[in-house]
Specification:
79% helix, elongated, Arc Repressor Mutant, subunit A
Amino acid sequence: MEELFTRERFLEEGKKEFLEKGFQDTSLRQLCKKLGLTLGAFYGYFKGKEALFEAIVSGPAEKVLRYYKESHDSYTKKNPKEQYEGIGNEPADVLMVMLDCMYEYYDEFKLLFCCSAGTKYELYLEEFIAVEVIATGQFLDLMRENGILSVEIDEQLSHNLASMLFNGMVEIFKHDMTYEHAREYVTKLRLFYTAGWMKLFEG
């Protein structure tokens, strides 16, 4: 029981330190000093500083990424006409579910998006972008095969557009938006991108 309590203290204080200083500038020695514990005690629970960071963020990070991938998988099971007609609404719904989850774990996503430099999670956003680029390519191939669209979209352009969208989501945490502000912001962000894609689809 005491071991569980000590581990939770490291997680709780570690989260505060990472939020305040970022991963790279957080000192394990200072963390242990604040808790009145030794480095030896720390290494009894974690292999190192990055292991502590991962223990804090990995659960929420994996949950949202998994949901995003599953949403794309579900979307691709629909027939071509349904996919085309759902362009604006379904992605917006997915982003809102993601936003709700991110606000449920606000501190963890603040760490992922703003404080993760020096960890493997500094590339976390790229995983979403990669999924989006692949899904966009598959969608356009399907539309062309079924005579719904004929437009060609360069993969680099697709990557850049996806990157701008997801970096737009990161701005929520950089500016500590309220939940209400974030929902309105994401709604308008998605409307903007949907309109842009529809314009590109005209060729």
